[in-house]
């Protein structure tokens, strides 16, 4: 088993690279594309990565990586577009429940140096199975990923859930305004989005500001930090059809 780096914006190609790394029996080391090059190189070195696939658009922003003993392999990425995850990507995915390493993710580093977290196939797949059961997904559901796939909640709770449940998944870049997200929800009849408390408030204000009819959207799942009661109540007032009575979970 080798550890293979992957740096890029959310895209169909990025997702297919994750699956390909798994299918070849290797571990994907996911680095957020917004991290400075030198920090990314340090993380890759720490994880003993010798090869890293990188979105050409990100590589252009970085410039030519300095000689660091890591081979950067650029790939074309259609991350400026928004669309459905194609069937061939679903077909390439195969469930694994082994205790082998599946992915290494890095913490935000808010309390110091970013730390690498190793997760096995068993861990991420059993977690995704539990989330599928919790979500009570139906055949008409469609999920929109708006957070970086280099984070655990997005990778496990959204991407893996969609792949395993064969749920329609909409892929778009991570830098989108709330207004743009609302347009995507309308265009693709999105029923589920997952977000954090701050973005929840931004989306709720946008819904309310333009009095958008979000008939397809049935639920917003919130994680990543604490959803305080005042934040919940504010969002509830703006989009009551998406929030039940104030019985909610505070997720960290």
Strand order of the largest sheet: 4-3-1-2-6-7
Percentage of helical residues? Answer: 25-40%
CATH topology of one domain: Rossmann fold
Tell me the name of the CATH homologous superfamily of one domain.
ANL, N-terminal domain
The coarse overall form would be: globular
Rg computed from alpha carbons, rounded to a whole number of angstroms: 18 Å
CATH uppermost class of one domain: Alpha Beta
Give the biggest sheet: 6 strands, mixed
Indicate the low-confidence ranges by residue numbers: 245-252
Mean pLDDT: 86
In short:
This protein is α/β, with parallel strands linked by helices and 252 residues long. The protein is built from 9 helices and 11 strands.
Characterization of the model:
Helix 5 crosses helix 6 (152-165), helix 7 crosses helix 8 (197-210) and helix 8 (197-210) packs parallel to helix 9 (229-238). The protein has 252 residues and is α/β, with parallel strands linked by helices. The protein has a 6-stranded mixed beta sheet with strand order 4-3-1-2-6-7, with helices on both faces. It contains 9 helices and 11 strands. It has a domain at 3-175: Rossmann fold, CATH 3.40.50.12780. The model is unreliable at 245-252 (pLDDT under 50).
């Amino acid at each position: 088993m080798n550890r293979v780096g992957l740096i890029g914006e959310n895209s169909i190609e990025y997702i297919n690279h994750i699956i390909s790394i798994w299918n070849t029996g290797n571990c994907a080391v996911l680095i957020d594309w917004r991290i400075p090059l030198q920090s990314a190189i340090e993380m890759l070195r720490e994880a003993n990565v010798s090869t890293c696939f990188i979105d050409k658009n990100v590589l252009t922003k970085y410039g030519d990586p300095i000689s660091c003993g890591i081979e950067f392999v650029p790939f074309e990425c259609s991350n400026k577009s928004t669309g459905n995850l194609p069937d061939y990507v679903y077909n390439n995915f195969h469930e694994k429940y082994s205790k082998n390493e599946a992915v290494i993710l890095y913490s935000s580093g808010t309390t110091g140096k970013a730390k690498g977290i190793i997760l096995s196939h068993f861990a991420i797949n059993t977690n995704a199975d539990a989330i599928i059961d919790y979500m009570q997904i139906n055949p008409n559901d469609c999920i929109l990923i708006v957070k970086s796939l280099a984070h655990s909640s997005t990778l496990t709770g959204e991407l893996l859930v969609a792949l395993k449940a064969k749920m329609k998944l909409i892929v778009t870049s991570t830098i989108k305004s709330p207004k743009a997200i609302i347009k995507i929800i309308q265009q693709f009849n999105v029923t589920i989005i997952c977000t954090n408390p701050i973005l929840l408030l931004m989306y709720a204000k946008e819904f309310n500001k333009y009095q958008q009819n979000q008939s397809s959207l049935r639920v917003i799942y919130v994680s990543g930090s604490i959803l305080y009661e005042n934040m919940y109540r504010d969002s509830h007032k703006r989009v009551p059809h998406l929030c039940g009575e104030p019985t909610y979970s505070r997720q960290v």
